[in-house]
Amino acid sequence: GAGVSQSPSNKVTEKGKDVELRCDPISGHTALYWYRQSLGQGLEFLIYFQGNSAPDKSGLPSDRFSAERTGGSVSTLTIQRTQQEDSAVYLCASSLAWFGYTFGSGTRLTVV
Amino acid sequence: AQTVTQSQPEMSVQEAETVTLSCTYDTSENNYYLFWYKQPPSRQMILVIRQEAYKQQNATENRFSVNFQKAAKSFSLKISDSQLGDTAMYFCAFMKRSYGGSQGNLIFGKGTKLSVKP
């Protein structure tokens, strides 16, 4: 597609439920990144994909967080048993080279 | 580990004036890239300008320019002729240069909230 697409745009969920966030990168971009942005904070790196493999998962905050990427394209970030501290904007970006990332508009997750 | 520091949480400027946003970083790497991103209320992160560390010449994109001081590890952004549409959060970011076709992750500062006043 023309840009990075993320869905849903907003998600409200009850504490303890599982959620799936989707990212559809720019066609042909081999690298895909997930970041988390909490209120008033910078961007916290979560995970990075090169193709379908994830060479760097170092930012995932707990084992409740997982991500996968299929066909070198769409990625899903899954948060199990959501907690209130998971409330944040989750941003996805894709990249072809060092030129910098192209970001999506993010998913605002609110855990109530 | 690399760190990026933006020491100005908030700034304001009058329309048509010039403003400079500060950024410093810490790294032991010699080859890397630096970026400024803009995040308006729409949440979308927009690339403003990028700089390759091995280039001494400061990058310029229309009204946006940087002052890159490699020895001092400083990378400030100057916005000339500020416009109301420049109101946004501005993030400085660092990326280590990777080889073999892979890309590294961007490391961001905490951002500076810029308000342009009419």
Topology:
The complex is a heterodimer of chains A (about 110) and B (about 120).
Chain A: E1 5-7, E2 10-13, E3 19-24, E4 31-37, E5 43-50, E6 53-56, E7 65-69, E8 75-79, E9 88-95, E10 102-103, E11 107-111
Parallel strand pairs in A: 2-11
Antiparallel strand pairs in A: 1-3, 3-8, 4-5, 4-9, 5-6, 7-8, 9-10, 9-11
Chain B: E1 3-5, E2 10-14, E3 19-21, E4 24-26, E5 32-39, E6 46-52, E7 60-61, E8 64-69, E9 74-79, E10 88-96, E11 107-108, E12 112-117
Parallel strand pairs in B: 2-12
Antiparallel strand pairs in B: 1-4, 3-9, 5-6, 5-10, 7-8, 8-9, 10-11, 10-12
Top keywords for this entry?
heterodimer; A: 112 residues; mainly beta; seven-stranded mixed β-sheet; 11 strands; 51% strand; globular; B: 118 residues; four-stranded antiparallel β-sheet
Short note summarizing the structure:
The complex is a heterodimer of chains A (112) and B (118). Chain A has strands spanning 5-7, 10-13, 19-24, 31-37, 43-50, 53-56, 65-69, 75-79, 88-95, 102-103, 107-111.
